[in-house]
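U., I forgot to send this yesterday:
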Amino acid sequence: MDQSLAVWLVLAAAVVAANLPYFSERVLLVGPRRAPKAAWWRLLELALMAVLVFGLGSMLEARLGQRHEQDWQFYAAAACLFITLGFPGFVWRYLRRGRG
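Result:
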């Protein structure tokens, strides 16, 4: 796998993972279904998905070559980007208007 394919794979995984908590009513995406799932569950799922995507990116970076150590600034910027990628799901869940 080349580097550009790995970057696109991580970005696609981040877009999907950032929106999953908003489109699913299941707890942690596999647990029992709750009709009005609490917002803190969605935030917990969002944090878990961010950790999984960061792990995927780290694994692909190590597989392609030498893995570079990152400081807190990288993770802060990546977390902000992850939250921004989840904005369409947030709009769909909380800001769309009902019919009629």
